[in-house]
Write a sequence for this structure.
């Protein structure tokens, strides 16, 4: 699409500025939502994308697919969905996917303010909502819905035609998660007319500041690799089969190849000054610490700082260092408020970064790469980038995903820089050299080339893709990785011998969990008698940050053992988690004090309760409980988690999902994994640490200075006979 100079400014509801001014004088003036909307309109008009709205609308009138690039902060995520609502073809909802829930929620909040509407489920009239795992906040009037990629995939499973949407916007596509690659493949099928249930065309916008526009445009332009490759629903398959039997040509509407529009939005509102180190640093945490205090002591307020680190542990240790040092600063300096931000943090704690700091206080946000894209953190003027991130990688030898600390890509570094300069000019300090930056990979390797694909393959199967190997992937994954995933799904009984999805597989695909945890939930529902309630409690713990406050020294470990003693279970960590959840849930007076007494994170426990509520609702909906039963508040008091028979049922349910995560005791006293025959030690954080038992099941294999099994319970080898026969 050709670039076009500024179009006359129009307000979002299509009125002219003059008309808008008239309304400002009217009775709406006392409505705080409307007042905020009018105020924000002024800043919206200054965004580079504002003058391109006619181009964008025209592109989508003409073609069904638009690939939009534009610098960080040019207004893509907040403005484009609002422009689309004014188009004639847009009678339904616009979905906007985000790689992370923190971005989905904060964007929805911002756009609700810009549109002068309440947010999400707070009002039936709300026009803007969001949907993230374990939290759906939409209303019957929702027109723009920000949702994580995983949630859109879940919706695709329920409604393959995406009939509630006029448009799907895939934002931050450069991150190339497995989920986004699946979404792109399914959307390609939809725009090529594979799904005949759709009465009107689905419009698709793919956006990013740093993506390969030409490659994505080509992907949507090219024909489908095979007719059925991106999935159909049951009815369509029946039609196709019928046509084949009768020898007719299939009755599916023939795809009319439509060209793809591309558009680039030039410029950003505020500049960001870049600084590099002269020499590489040996101790990036120390360098970050020094940089934070240099900024704090030299730069005027306001000016919050956003620091990119690798993970929860580094964030927590830097937080401690900063807080200890800040106590000694004289009163001449503003105060410091350190806020951590990482994926396992509960939602309400994540959202604290968006609140303004108290007067005379500078926010220092210590974040993993979850704040790297899409988010605007109000107040941030300085970004400090350590240049590293934890990246998930499949390790063939172990047949497991591991998190490894690796240098980021140039694209990530540019995204990080783009978190400054959003409300005013900013500065980005890269804690590496210019040469270091130049030597980074341009883009990160797509997740699909480096991760376990079992969840992806199951999603494809559940969405009616008969042969995942011929799915239209933007970057096809290696064949052996796909075959491994198929094998794992067979092991989980999610697929039948002929490769079709089984009843179990369909049920797992509907749960917002990995196939392994989904399988555990199903097995617990099917055990005799069922142990679903208890298993949900444990799975909820595994879905959030560690509930036990970290104990580092021998002394604190002893203190913790005393404080938590009555919760520890001899069988290991799974039943200990259950005991902790049940004791917390049964505490009716002061849960916070209870958590403190037991050296348990109250914040993590609140998340566990949230997740367990959602999982219980989903299991009820999926009819995983015998008919007539329900979850009731009194559940928590009735179960004795010391019960050996119950322990056996629960651990057997875990074994059905984690059959690849078993180790047995060898005559020399070490443990060796069943898969890969690796030596592995019990992690010091486990209640089984230092104990010798005949065999173990574990949740995670982590490699630090040596290989550890984390989240461990003792099992009996004879239990495996049931499992493998
Ligand atoms: N929560 C917020 N508070 C204050 N300003 C905001 C907020 N969200 C967005 N903005 C303003 O809107 C601008 C555009 O944000 P938007 O997220 O739409 O840009 P973008 O082009 O999608 O950026 P990116 O590629 O970095 O995600 C920001 O630079 C900022 O000025």
């Amino acid at each position: 699409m050709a670039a076009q100079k500024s179009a006359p400014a129009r307000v979002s509801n299509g009125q002219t500025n003059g008309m808008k001014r008239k309304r400002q004088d009217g009775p709406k003036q006392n409505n705080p939502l409307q007042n905020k909307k009018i105020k924000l309109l002024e800043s919206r008009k200054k965004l580079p994308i504002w003058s391109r709205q006619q181009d964008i609308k025209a592109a989508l009138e003409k073609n069904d697919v638009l690939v939009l690039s534009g610098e960080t902060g040019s207004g893509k995520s907040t403005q484009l969905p609002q422009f689309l609502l004014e188009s004639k073809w847009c009678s339904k909802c616009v979905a906007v996917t985000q790689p992370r829930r923190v971005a989905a929620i904060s964007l929805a909040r911002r756009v609700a303010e810009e549109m002068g509407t309440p947010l999400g489920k707070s009002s039936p009239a709300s026009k803007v909502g969001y949907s993230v795992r374990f939290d759906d906040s939409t209303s019957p009037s929702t027109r723009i819905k920000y949702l994580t990629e995983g949630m859109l995939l879940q919706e695709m499973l329920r409604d393959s035609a995406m009939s509630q949407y006029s448009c799907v916007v895939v934002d931050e596509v450069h991150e190339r998660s497995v989920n986004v690659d699946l979404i792109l493949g399914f959307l390609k099928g939809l725009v090529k007319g594979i799904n005949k249930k759709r009465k009107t065309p689905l419009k698709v916008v793919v956006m990013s500041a740093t993506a390969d526009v030409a490659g994505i445009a080509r992907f949507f332009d090219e024909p489908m690799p095979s007719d059925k490759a991106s999935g159909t629903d049951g009815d369509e398959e029946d039609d196709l089969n019928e046509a084949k039997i009768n020898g007719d040509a299939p009755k599916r509407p023939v795809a009319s190849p439509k060209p793809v529009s591309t558009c680039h939005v030039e410029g950003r509102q505020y500049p960001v000054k870049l600084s590099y180190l002269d020499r590489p640093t040996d101790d990036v945490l120390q360098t970050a610490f020094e940089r934070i205090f240099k900024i704090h002591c030299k730069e005027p307020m306001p000016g919050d700082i956003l620091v990119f680190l690798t993970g929860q542990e580094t964030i927590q240790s830097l937080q401690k260092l900063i807080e200890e040092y800040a106590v000694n600063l004289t009163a001449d300096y503003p105060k410091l408020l350190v806020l951590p931000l990482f994926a396992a943090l509960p939602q309400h704690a994540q959202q604290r970064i968006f609140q303004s700091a108290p007067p005379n206080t500078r926010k220092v946000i210590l974040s993993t790469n979850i704040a790297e894209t899409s988010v605007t953190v109000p107040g941030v003027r300085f970004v400090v980038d350590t240049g590293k991130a934890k990246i998930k990688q499949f390790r063939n030898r172990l047949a497991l995903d591991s998190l490894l600390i690796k240098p980021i890509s140039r694209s990530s570094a540019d995204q990080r820089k783009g978190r400054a300069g959003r409300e005013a000019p900013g500065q980005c300090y890269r804690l590496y050299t210019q040469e270091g930056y130049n030597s980074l990979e341009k883009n990160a390797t797509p997740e699909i080339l480096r991760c376990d694909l079992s969840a992806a393959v199951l999603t494809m199967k559940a969405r009616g893709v008969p042969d995942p190997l011929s799915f239209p992937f933007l970057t096809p994954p290696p064949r052996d990785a796909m075959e491994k995933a198929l094998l794992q799904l067979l092991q989980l009984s999610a697929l039948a011998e002929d490769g079709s999805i089984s009843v179990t597989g369909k049920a797992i695909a509907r749960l917002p969990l990995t196939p392994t945890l989904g399988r555990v939930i199903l097995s617990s529902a099917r055990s005799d008698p069922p142990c679903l309630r208890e298993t949900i409690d444990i799975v909820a713990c595994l879905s959030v940050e560690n509930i036990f406050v970290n104990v580092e020294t021998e002394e604190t470990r002893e203190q913790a053992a005393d404080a938590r003693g009555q919760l520890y279970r001899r069988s290991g960590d799974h039943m200990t988690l259950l005991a902790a959840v049940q004791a917390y849930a049964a505490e009716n007076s002061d849960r916070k004090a209870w958590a403190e007494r037991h050296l348990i994170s109250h914040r993590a426990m609140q998340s566990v309760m949230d997740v367990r509520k959602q999982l219980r609702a989903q299991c009820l909906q999926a009819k995983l409980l015998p008919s007539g039963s329900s979850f009731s508040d009194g559940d928590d008091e009735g179960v004795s988690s010391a019960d050996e028979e119950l322990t056996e049922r629960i651990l057997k349910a875990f074994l059905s999902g984690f059959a690849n995560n078993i180790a047995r005791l060898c005559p020399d006293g070490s443990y060796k994994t069943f898969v890969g025959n690796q030596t592995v030690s019990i992690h010091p954080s486990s209640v089984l640490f230092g104990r010798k038992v005949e065999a173990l099941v574990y949740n995670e294999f982590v490699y630090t200075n040596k290989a550890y099994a984390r989240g461990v319970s003792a099992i009996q080898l004879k239990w495996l006979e049931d499992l493998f026969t």
Remarks:
- The chain has four domains: 48-233+259-265, 283-445, 511-646, 658-725.
- The CA atoms of residues 71 and 202 lie 26 Å apart.
